[in-house]
Specification:
six-stranded mixed beta sheet, alpha+beta, five-stranded antiparallel beta sheet, CNF1/YfiH-like putative cysteine hydrolases, about 20% helix
Amino acid sequence: MHPITHPNGVISYAFDNLTAFPVSAHISTRHGGVSPAPWTSLNFSVSRGDEPARVTANFARFCAAVGVNPTRPVRTHQVHGTAVAKVDSDDAGSRQTATDALITDAVGLPLFLVFADCTPILLYDKERHALGVCHAGWRGTVNGAGAATLWAMQAAYDTDPADVWVGIGPSIGPTSYEVGDEVFQMVQAKLPGPDRFFTFPNGPDANPYFDLWQANAAQLIEAGVPVEQIEIAAIDTAQNTGDFFSHRAERGACGLFGMLAWLRPIVSS
């Protein structure tokens, strides 16, 4: 990924592997907003104590930075599940309930999700010109949220996984994400080859550390996405709280950053 500094002070990150395609995706940092500490400063959450007017202003600033009308993005009420909503232009400005992923083939329709350690996943089908975005925390990861998004694209748009390019954005990293027995046992039960996703830096009797990046990438690879078409940002939110919100590192006293993505028109040569 690479950072982009916008004229209004907003800083976003974009995936390197999407630059050749007619798709835009921006992951916000905490820079360029109006919220005071502890939400400093580009916070998109109204559920963590920040004032709604400031959150609205922050979203307007992010949208202005990337050239999107703030009334158009489709948002979600995220529940750490695997539900996927197929949306089109008629859904502009809506909030999809109990949904952690969105898919569309509507050009110009922005899709928006929020994060503070969970994994942003973007899927772009270059042949069908279709887009998917997904929010995957540990529950979503273990239950296959990224693969569920891919399957929904297959069902809706006849997507071939071989044509899909993936971006896995900033989230809590494998050297920061210490988990308890509940997570460890769930991964052991649900993911093939589960041991590859854990390390034990403090010894075999201590809590393991879980690699969300590789767990999500592996499921998409096993579903047919070529490994060379997957970009992992490898930005650990827990170790980069100067740029990103981290629920774990900031003990919940933080905001949420966002991913905003949309399809651009295909320009024939």
